[in-house]
Amino acid sequence: MSTTIPLIVKILASSVSVANRAGKIVRDVMSKGELGIVEKGKDDYQTEADRSAQKCIIASLSAQYPKVKIIGEEEESPDDKGAIPSDWIVVESDKDVLCMQCPASLQGICEEDIVVWVDPLDGTSEYTQGFLEHVTVLIGISVNEKPVAGVIHQPYYKTIIGGEKVMGRTIWGLQEAGVGGYTPAPPPDSLIITTTRSHSNPIVEQALQVMNASQILRVGGAGYKVLQLLEGKASVYVFASPGCKKWDTCAPEAILAAAGGKLTDILGNFYKYGATVSHPNKTGVLAAVNDELHNYALTRIPRELKDTLAKK
Ligand code: AMP
Ligand code: MG
Ligand code: MG
Fold first, then answer.
1. Least confident span in 2-6, 190-194, 210-214, 242-246
2. Which member of 47, 124, 170, 249 is catalytic?
3. Which residues pair with 143 in a beta bridge?
4. Which of 74-88, 152-166, 179-193, 225-239 has the lowest mean pLDDT?
5. Inside any domain, residue 1
6. Residues 197 and 140 in one domain
7. What is the pLDDT of residue 94?
């Protein structure tokens, strides 16, 4: 009975369904071919897909959970206040997620305790350049400043079900309860690092060089990089730059933690995800599949490099 399902489980189940719909919007914009690219800043773009997918997600979640604070990456422009297509409002919930066991620590929370961080399209550079498998939709759910649940949806992931090609898959995680939507795999035998494809700089490269890795994978999006950790394609994600924002890391951090991994800044500190925090992750991102690898990477990064990022 829906009234007995804890709020956090309901929001996660709603987020899975709305991420699927947002992913279809992302594909539809690309199929139409009118991307409507806007340059927000240096190396920072927005497309019609980013704008529309965010409207779908925020309208759907705020209709069902009006007191939850939702923070999306894209700014709403004043001439954007009009009605959105009715088929962008999703009220369904994922049935598998609704059956998840909620940890005791999250059972008593109310809407006012929750902040949802939305990246409607993570990997916009890659989307515009045709690296479509890097693109994800991210919905991260934080409670009392801590990421506790999240969704990573991949609009261009292909599977064959019953002989038919199905586009898109959705990965989710809930603190102390588990993860779903993919097949977890152990880390690779040698150290494989994943990092940015389109936002590198000399400090980012310096932090990679000191890792002594057997391979460095350069792919787009925080969501896709954490998926590589979850699926055993890489073991550590290193990004010594202030470029990522809270909406990039909230969902990936929550899912990675639910799978036994860890995401912090380059200094080893956790980010906070309360409603009033500043959006940039100024001191970078360091994530690993387990504590041991996280600690290894943390100790390899030179003190001066940490100090340089901390001063920025
Ligand atoms: P990347 O690993 O470069 O694909 O970046 C992961 C996320 O952080 C994406 O949402 C990027 O847009 C964002 N990001 C990283 N670096 C920058 C930057 N220098 N300027 C703007 N956004 C960035
Ligand atoms: Mg992003
Ligand atoms: Mg984005």
1. 2-6
2. 124
3. 114, 146
4. 74-88
5. no
6. no
7. 98
Q: pLDDT tens, 141-182?
A: 999 999 999 999 999 999 998 999 999 999 999 999 999 999
Q: What CA–CA distance (Å, rounded) separates 171 from 179?
A: 7
Q: Global pTM?
A: 0.98
Report the 10 Å Cβ neighbour count for 290.
17
β partners of residue 173: 150, 179
Catalytic, 87? Answer no
Within a domain: 96? yes
Residue 301 contacts by C-beta under 8 Å, 6 or more apart in sequence? 207, 210, 240, 266, 286
Residue 104 lies in a domain: yes
Residue from 125, 248, 266 whose mutation best tests the ligand 1 pocket (most atoms within 8 A of CB): 248
Helix (H, G, I), strand (E, B) or coil at 176: coil
Residues with CB under 6 Å of ligand 1 are 43-44, 122-123, 196-199, 220-222, 239, 241, 243-244, 248
Domain limits at 219?
A: 192-310
For residues 241 and 164, membership in a common domain is answered with no
For residues 38 and 25, give the distance between their C-alpha atoms in angstroms, rounded to a whole number. Answer: 18
Residue 80: active-site member: no
